[in-house]
Amino acid sequence: MNEETNPVGAEGAPGWSEFKFGRRLGLQAAAAMAASGALLSLADVSDAHAATKSGTIKIGYVSPRTGALADFAGPDNFVLKEIRASSYFAKGITIGKTKYQIEIIEKDTQSLANVAVQVTQELINSGCDLIVTSSAPETTIPVATTCEQYKVPCLATVVPWEAWWGGFSGASITAHGTAAGKGPIYNSMFFFGIPHFAGTFVPMWERIAHQTRANHNVAEMYPNDADGNAFRAAFAPTVDAMFPQGGYTFVDGGAYTDLTTNYSSMIETFKTGGKGGTSCDLYVNCPLPPDFQSFWTQASQQNYKPKLATVAKVMLFPTDAYALGALSNNIATDAWFTPYSPYESSLTGQSANQFAAAYQAQGNGQWVQSMGSTYALFEIAIVALKKVSNPHNRLDVAHALQSVNYEGMCGPINMNAKSADPLLASPAKGIGIIQPVGVQWKRGSTDLVGHKKYPWSQWVVDNSLNKKIPINGTLEPTNA
Q: Both ends of the chain: CA-CA distance in Å?
């Protein structure tokens, strides 16, 4: 890892805005902690906890059960039921010569960062040995920075690593978009970053351009919010660096306000703003779901129909596809968990496909990506706990989390992977990278999960970053 601690010139670097977003959330979390005064003094909190003789290991789980991010936590009840039924959670875990029971304590952030801080404090005060958290920077960064402040081990997922890294005091990102500076002691995470979005989307662009002779003009729909500004700063430079022969022309539709209702001006820009005054045949975004629904409907009405739409943040869940109806056809996005993978639970041996089929069979609706990453949080927790001699020693548990290297429901995750390929290496110790695949939403055919038929299903159409996950659908133009 590059040890540069002063990111001079880094504001144009891939991931820099995600980093600044994480820093801002980290500062907000610190302010919320200072205002609450809810915790014991920092002094010796973890040392005192290590001396406890409790026969129960307490794991806190924080997610956005309600509010704007609730779709991410939709499968929580099912996943936690499966976890609690698995052997270590149902029968206990032996560490050294002592057998411990495991208790999971759940908390809802209401999709609000200040509530995330509050519920994390409650978990710490209740004596949690470890806290795990999922789903979006607004959830994971306040939880992680609160845990770091109070020396409690924490594991996060479903947050771009650049944003997560930025939440910690002393962390930085170099001009090359790599992690540097002093990172966290008590925290670990697994997901991916801006280069992996590029590595998933661009191969699909290239194949569609070959099929259809689509031009290399790329329409960018980014709002004036934290996620939008992060993509605006980082995505195009990352693509240019990773695919220097691509010759892509990026056309920014303008930094609009969230929940805008009229996108006519942006649509006109995309129709005429490409190289040589041509339309943009490729499209990328990261808006709020209702904004994309409004834009995409208006784009169709105004005859802007890019040959391939590759989207981030939206179209992750079946509810997104159902809301758009016929306009969902062949929209592509990234997938970090898919039941079509060859992976299986490290706790039970259940395959990813069986896991998703059980979810559907129990009346929960169609499988969703976040079920896999939530499950993996608890798999990794067990791997780490088995490495320590005292599960109440928070520093030892934190160190164990940062050295996990295993394969489970989301595939192989190595918190300290060494590789010459930056897409495979850990950006820093304690960061595990999931290799995503590209999927498209397709209408009505019976999927391969329990042989269920839904109005729309995700099919794997590109595995450039993860050859272990088989392609089972044909990459087709979003609009012919």
A: 44
Which two tokens mark 190?
Answer: 């697994």
DSSP for residue 278: -
3.10.129.10, 3.40.980.10, 2.30.22.10, 3.40.50.2300: which CATH number matches 195-335+437-462? Answer: 3.40.50.2300
Phi and psi at 208, nearest 5°, equal -65, -40
pLDDT at 268 over 50: yes
Residue 438's CB is within 10 A of a number of other CB atoms, namely 27
Phi–psi pair at 99, nearest 5 degrees: -100, 130
Domain 10-192+340-433 has CATH 3.40.50.2300: yes
Please give the C-alpha separations between residue 132 and each of 20, 158, 433, in angstroms, as whole numbers: 23, 12, 17
Sign of CA dihedral 328, 334, 336, 340: positive
Q: Tens digit of pLDDT for each residue in 300-359?
A: 999 999 999 999 989 999 999 999 999 999 999 999 999 999 999 999 999 999 999 999
Same fold, 10-192+340-433 and 195-335+437-462: yes
Separation of alpha carbons 460 and 469, rounded Å: 8
Task: Tell me the pairing of strands 179-181 and 437-443.
Answer: unpaired
Residue 42 CB neighbour total at 10 angstroms = 10
pTM of this prediction exceeds 0.70: yes
> Which residue's structure tokens are 């659908």?
473
DSSP secondary structure letter of residue 351: B
